[in-house]
Automatic annotation (TrEMBL):
Spans traversing the lipid bilayer: 12-36
Active-site residue numbers: S212
Protein name: Alpha/beta hydrolase
Family from the record: Belongs to the 'GDXG' lipolytic enzyme family.
Signal sequence residues: none
InterPro entries on file: AB_hydrolase_3 (IPR013094), AB_hydrolase_fold (IPR029058), GDXG_lipolytic_enzyme (IPR050300), Lipase_GDXG_put_SER_AS (IPR033140)
Domain Alpha/beta hydrolase fold-3 as annotated: residue spans: 133-348
Domain of life: Eukaryota
Length: 379
């Protein structure tokens, strides 16, 4: 639940008095980690990795979640220039079932191409390259698809896989008005439809990809295709990449569930961060977080195209993701699994920020190997 720090004048008091004290304590903790390896989040990590993980967790996410700011999204091109597209809302007949809401309707959203846009309606279905439609992470409450937040992801995919272009939509965030479920799912439908119907890219060339909360959205979109694809004209993609997907949002409604995990000390995710994301997505539980479109862990289904899943050995979602892989395989979904050793959550997004660039690139290389194998089987 939002605390009193989210309201003025308490937010000002928090920034003025609480943050400086906590900063001093954090600096002391980081200094101790530099002197004693046993005080680091993980004994195998360097001091730079340890200090970065501690700073993100205790110096950034902890305080961000105390005040819970909104995160406005702009439809102006900005520094992305002509690489930034405006995605029209999905058509009425494409939004049905769980995505059809009396109060939340599809809207125009933005999206960023890297390295450049695919020429409209000039695609050759026989072309050997792929287009990645990637949905970013951020617990449904922060980040966007622009270069500042997602550029490292785009470059990692482009440099290590068969994808020639990456398109990253900036779906609606749940801490903004009108951003609760199913807003982001509607935006995923709009983005996929945009590539298919406006850009003219065949589904056989589209790779659906997502990290953390974005991985959750990809799973929701795939479930939507499985249940509604035939009458919404949304076909299966070429394949799927899931990077540290968040598969049990319901568990995060209780921060104690996150803090009790053995990997809580070796991850930069703060319990208040995922708790805020879960509460915002479900509008303080006015929508059931057990909905399979929100928490897919306990509701396996068959995905009819190959799926690659990456999980980090030291992330708090490790057990959930491993269980998700097992249950989805039991539902006849073909899944390749890669475990990133000695790494925290979602390094494909955060690797550059917390010192795990090489580990992130290795993950992308493994994803590239997977896409190559898929292509060989499709010949």
């Amino acid at each position: 639940m939002p605390g009193y720090w989210t309201r003025q004048p308490f937010t000002f008091i928090y920034i003025l008095f609480v943050v400086p004290v906590q900063a001093i304590l954090l600096v002391s903790r980081i200094a101790a980690a530099g002197l004693f390896r046993g005080l680091r989040p993980h004994p195998a990590w360097s001091f730079s990795k340890s200090s970065a993980v501690l700073f993100v967790k205790e110096g950034f996410l902890r305080h961000l979640c105390a005040v819970r700011p909104s995160a406005p999204l702009s439809l102006e091109p900005g520094s992305e220039g002509n690489r930034f597209d405006i995605i029209p809302p999905a058509e009425g007949d494409q939004v049905t079932g769980v995505a059809d809401d009396n109060n939340i309707k599809p809207v125009h959203i933005g999206g960023t191409w890297t390295p450049f846009s695919v020429p409209q309606n000039q695609q050759n279905p026989e072309q050997d390259t792929l287009v990645a439609l990637h949905f970013h992470g951020g617990a449904f409450i922060m980040c966007e698809g622009r270069d500042a937040d997602s550029g490292f992801i785009a470059r990692s995919i482009l440099e290590n896989t068969r994808c020639s272009n990456v398109f990253m939509p900036q779906y609606r965030l749940s801490n903004n008005p009108g951003g609760r479920f199913p807003a982001a799912l509607q935006d995923c439908i709009s983005a996929y439809s945009y590539l298919l119907n406006h850009m003219g890219i065949p589904s056989s060339r589209i790779v659906l990809s997502g990290d953390s909360a974005g991985g959750n959205l990809v799973i929701a979109l795939l479930r939507y295709i499985a249940e509604n694809g035939s009458h919404t004209h949304l076909p299966w993609p070429n394949s799927v990449l899931l990077w540290s997907p968040w598969v049990d949002v319901a568990a995060a409604l209780s921060p104690q569930n996150i803090e009790a995990h053995p990997n809580y000390g070796t991850d930069y995710l703060h319990s208040s961060f995922v708790n805020w994301g879960a509460e915002a997505l479900t509008e303080l539980e006015s929508i059931s977080a057990e909905n399979p479109y929100i928490s897919p862990l306990r509701s396996p289904f068959r995905i009819e195209v190959p799926v690659w899943v990456q999980v980090s050995e030291n992330e708090v979602f490790y057990d959930d993701i491993m269980q998700f892989v097992r249950t989805m395989r039991g539902a006849s979904t073909e899944i390749d699994l890669y475990i990133a050793k000695d790494s925290p959550h979602d390094i494909i997004m955060m690797g550059q920020r917390v010192g795990f660039e090489e580990e992130a690139r290795l993950c992308a290389t493994k994803a590239g190997d997977f896409l190559t194998q898929v292509a060989m089987r499709q010949v």
